Amino acid sequence: MTEDDLNSQPDQTRDTGDELREHEVRTALLDLLAEVGTVTATEAAAELGYSSGLCSFHLRQLARHGHIEEAPHNGGRARPWRLRQHTPTATAPAEDQFGDLARGLEDESWQRWLAQRDQAPAEWRHDEAFSAVAYLTPEEMSRLADTIRRALAPYQDREQRPLARPDGARPVALITRLFPLLPHATDGTDQTDQG
After folding, report:
1. 37: alpha, beta or left, given left = phi > 0 and alpha = psi -120 to 50?
2. CB distance 66 to 84 below 8 Å
3. pTM
4. Closest CA to 59 of 7, 8, 105, 12
5. Do the Cβ atoms of 107 and 118 come closer than 8 Å?
6. Which of 46, 102, 130, 165 is the S-S candidate for 169 at Cβ 3.0 to 4.6 Å?
7. CB atoms near residue 145 (< 10 Å)
8. 104 with 27, same domain?
């Protein structure tokens, strides 16, 4: 199977393990691009430990969804990629641009879960999604974020150490966003002062 064969395969319904692996590979590629600027499939494979065919496939998928683009190069077979240059937000810090990409992948994974959760094993057909609004000071918001990070710390090494995973453990997306709610621009009231 050639690289072009991999890239021309139609999207098919995949099991949850494949979907999670796709998210993992794409996130790793985006992290790498944010760190080094440009990368070819071969360079990504060497850095991340995946095959160059797998990296090439996912780089093309990221490009297809508008997250990355081909970087200028002098021809040849090697195809360097870079994070997509978003003209309207070009003045935004690189961390903000990468955050938007990561949130897009998180949202894509969530939508896939909602559409296909009935295909998961019975014991995994639920989720623990919730949201809340709390009135916090900036210091309290930071402390809460630190508390959440500490609560997750005992589980984070399992990605790199498969033998540390208990039987039946599966990858689970853990997404936390703490941000101040801003007033709606159209109503002219400051909701942050309302009790």
Report:
1. left
2. yes
3. 0.44
4. 7
5. no
6. 165
7. 13
8. yes
